[in-house]
Write a structure and sequence with these properties.
Elements lengths: L34 H20 L3 E2 L2 E2 L1 E4 L4 E4 L2 E3 L4 H22 L2 H5 L2 H17 L2 H9 L4 H27 L4 H9 L5 H21 L1 H7 L2 H8 L6 E4 L1 H4 L24 H4 L20 H13 L6 E4 L1 H6 L3 H8 L2 H22 L4 E7 L6 E2 L5 E11 L5 E8 L5 E3 L3 E4 L3 E11 L7 E11 L6 E10 L1
Antiparallel strand pairs: 1-2, 3-4, 4-5, 6-7, 8-10, 9-10, 10-14, 11-13, 11-15, 12-14, 15-16
Length: about 475
């Protein structure tokens, strides 16, 4: 016998909607001044001085740092790299990856909190915001207030400064790939090329969008580093930690009351650690992937502890093992040196030393040999067999060189005509070589020969390249 679950006949209520994503809430982060905030200021100034100032440095009457896309040359002070030097880019990426692994294994997301471009530009944009609109409470009141001429003026000023900084950032980035003086002249004369215009506004637009509006959303939802950081963490990794054993039970307390007798810990539950967090998390809930390791919560918590007369360090840099085993600073440091860290450090040092040695001892000359494929072989008037080659000689130094070209590998082999070529600094020249041998100098078909190109001013600058000589 069945039972009617709805005897009244009224339709059942619709099922509750489940949101796939949490609605975005604007975070009004309060600035926490202190030791770690000072370090963030230093890192912002340091990184941006390099970024904004580096492209204006000069070296040998040219831009010191220039990745010239059109000429396909990368200038880094006295070094000139060509597309054939892509191996050094691969090495740089490997070194950067291992350095990031090492820093993360030792100190968590230290890079995120102090040197990541997203963090740095968000910090600068927030400084502008605080300067124009005021501190956190003032910004809250301004956003809740009805629209007025004053509110529109303040908002317009803030966004104008953001846009100016963003466009200057886009111009600076483009200036590393196109000579900055020419770029500046083209901007002032409204004569920018298409790709230069695109990249200035593209990069500037994304700086404005991500540092001005998306901010913590980039760190929480877009950055892959936040997702795989747990793979590089272990119980001896330094992270921002809340001392739960000391802080709980949290709660406000009145003056003159023994907090321990009342069952209260050192945390007064002021919520300041949440207010200053740029990603809006509560560090008292433990390690969360949204934490970027900026240590703003440490600065503000130390200030609160000073005010209530309690020891600092309720929130501090520590490790899971240190919290569980009550380790002191000496023991924490001793736990940092562990097999994983030693391995990362050894690999990083080994790759850096080897690549540095190869870079310091690389030959500043590149030669490509291309045989004329339209005429495999031809017989000259005197009976000699000739093959024609084109040598692409690249002088990777900024000093001009005169090169002597010789060939060997077959009896009585020689180059017909001029065998020297002068190549200006940081440029390339094509050298056409007609190579002659007697008809019986080798076997029919392909015979291996070698071209040797030597700088007359410095015999140590030489390259030996193999080629094939065709005999009919």
């Amino acid at each position: 016998m069945s039972t009617n679950p709805n005897p009244t006949g009224t339709p059942p209520p619709p099922p509750a909607q489940i949101r796939a994503f949490e609605s975005h809430k604007v975070i009004y982060a309060k600035r926490a001044r202190g030791f770690f905030d000072n370090w963030r200021i230093i890192m912002v100034i340091f990184t941006q001085a390099i970024f904004y100032g580096g492209l204006w440095l000069e070296w040998n009457d040219r831009q010191a740092i220039l990745f010239h896309i059109i000429e396909r040359k990368f200038y880094i002070f006295g070094l000139v790299f060509w597309p054939q030097d892509v191996i050094y880019l691969a090495i740089l990426l490997i070194v950067s990856a291992y350095a990031l692994f090492l820093v993360t294994a030792v100190a968590g997301r230290l890079f995120c909190g102090y040197a990541c471009p997203q963090t740095v530009y968000t910090q600068v944009f927030m400084w502008i915001e605080n300067w124009v609109e005021g501190e956190r409470n003032t910004r809250l009141k301004l956003d809740k207030a009805p629209n007025s001429a004053r509110k529109m003026r303040i908002k317009a000023t803030k966004h104008a400064l953001w846009i100016i900084l963003s466009l200057w950032t886009g111009f600076t980035l483009t200036g590393y790939f196109s000579p900055v003086k020419e770029l500046a002249h083209n901007v002032l004369t409204f004569n920018l090329g298409g790709w230069e215009t695109f990249w200035i506004f593209f990069y500037g637009g994304f700086t404005y969008l991500m540092a001005g509006f998306m901010r913590e959303q980039v760190c929480k939802h877009m950055c892959p580093y936040a997702r795989f950081q747990s793979v590089m963490f272990d119980p001896d990794t330094l992270i921002i930690s809340y001392d739960e054993a000391r802080g709980e039970n949290r709660g406000a307390r009145k003056k003159g009351i023994d907090a321990k007798a009342a069952g209260l810990g050192d945390c007064v539950d002021c919520g300041q650690c949440v207010v200053v967090c740029p990603t809006g998390i509560d560090i008292r809930k433990g390690l969360q992937y949204e934490c970027i390791g900026c240590a703003a919560c440490i600065d503000v918590c130390d200030q609160v502890m000073d005010k209530v007369g309690l020891p600092r360090g309720l929130i501090r840099y520590s490790t899971e093992n240190a919290m569980a085993q009550k380790l002191d600073k000496q023991s924490i440091i001793s736990h940092i040196v562990r097999p994983r860290i030693i391995l990362y450090t050894a690999i990083l040092i080994l790759i850096t030393v080897i690549s540095g040695w190869f870079l310091a001892n690389r030959i500043p000359l590149k030669v490509d040999v291309i045989r004329d494929r339209f005429t495999l072989a031809r017989e000259a008037d005197d009976g000699q067999i000739e093959n024609v080659y084109s040598l692409h000689i690249v002088n990777t130094e900024e000093t001009p060189h005169r090169y002597k070209v010789t060939v060997d590998g077959l009896p009585d082999i020689s180059i017909d005509g001029i065998s020297e070529v002068e190549v200006p600094g940081a440029s390339r020249e094509n050298f056409n070589a007609i190579v002659r041998v007697p008809p019986d100098a080798g076997k029919k078909g392909a015979n291996q020969i070698h071209f040797e190109v030597v700088a007359e001013e410095n015999p140590e600058i030489k390259v030996r390249e193999k080629a094939s000589f065709m005999l009919p």
